[in-house]
Amino acid sequence: MPTILQSAFPEPVSGSMLAVLTLVCIVAGMVRGFSGFGSAMIMAPIYSAVFGPAVAVPVVLLTEMLISLPLLASARKSAVMSTVKQMLLAATAGAVFGLGLVVMLPVDTLASLVALTVLGFVALMIAQDHRQPVRRPATIKQRYLAGGASGLFGSISGMTGPPAVMLLLRTEMPAYAIRATLIVYFMLIDAVLVSLYVVQQEQVRMEWLSLGILSFLPMILGAWLGGKMFNLASEGMFRKITLMLIAGSALGSLFL
């Protein structure tokens, strides 16, 4: 591997591992392109296993922010800001607690915890798909609980999405409002989490930026491919494929 490329990584990476990471990023982009979610759940287990959560989480968060940034301006008009504020407040508290776990627990333990968390979320999402929940407005308590869980798991793994997504999909909010609310919330909580990591590390680590940019480039290709593939099968079929890919990423990371 060229020296200039190797310098972008926090530790030496073989050519075969670089190929694996590139493929993971392309698949993550494809998943995001045809399902609208799941890219962090694809990247987090592998990146945590290879680089450890202290590097993997900020990188995953930065790529998520880059993907969402172009959508933010239009989303602000339709987002339910009261929901965003309540979830964000609880998420910040959950993130502080989760960052304490990152500091205390061994890297291998955290990497395994990330993989098992992903598998748990996949199981919950499959279970939710097989039920027809009664849609009703989310209570303030539910918003705080979803936000707290989102911040906790986001600080450990970079995955802020599943708790918030599962809550809002069960509400009476129209689809466009759910999408807009999630885009604004994710951008804000991702920014909070990156800021907390900067405070904890007492610096902006250059490998976060370099690895984030290197990861984002193949994700763009994947997102384009995913968008092209969207019309080839039903939304339900792609959702099943997405969950299978996410589970495969989590299982594969346990053996790295």
Please give the share of residues in helix. over 70%
Largest sheet: none
Strand content: under 5%
First and last CA, distance: 20 Å
Record field, number of beta strands:
0
Shape: globular
| Helix-strand makeup class | mainly alpha
Count of distinct structural domains: 1
Walk me through the structure:
The protein is mainly α and about 260 residues long. The protein has one domain (about 15-255). It is about 80% helix and about 0% strand. The protein contains eleven helices and no strands. Helix 5 (about 80-105) packs parallel to helix 7. The radius of gyration is 17 Å and the shape is globular. The relative contact order is 0.21.
List keywords for this structure.
256 residues, mainly alpha, globular
Task: Write the SSE topology.
Blueprint: H1 3-6, H2 15-35, H3 39-51, H4 53-75, H5 81-104, H6 107-129, H7 140-157, H8 161-168, H9 175-201, H10 206-229, H11 235-253
Quick recap:
The protein has 256 residues and is mostly helical.
